[in-house]
Design brief:
It is built from no helices and 4 strands. It is mainly β. The termini are far apart. Bound molecules: zinc ion. The site of zinc ion (ZN) has 8 residues, from loops.
Length: 54
């Protein structure tokens, strides 16, 4: 599965979230932003920004 950060366009590592599901919150390791999973396809994850990291 792949999640591209909507803020910095880097791929977010999901290794820390082996049981990821819709509405879970993940953090982008590149820009530190917090994302909430809104939709999961076969291998593509959509997420929206819930908190702009510093
Ligand atoms: Zn990012």
């Amino acid at each position: 599965m792949h999640l591209t950060c909507p803020e910095c366009k880097n791929e977010v590592s999901l290794l820390s979230y082996p049981t990821l599901k819709t509405e879970d919150v993940v953090e982008c390791g590149m820009c530190g932003i917090t994302l909430q999973v809104t939709d999961m396809d076969d291998d593509k994850i959509s997420a929206e920004i819930v908190d702009e990291g510093k």
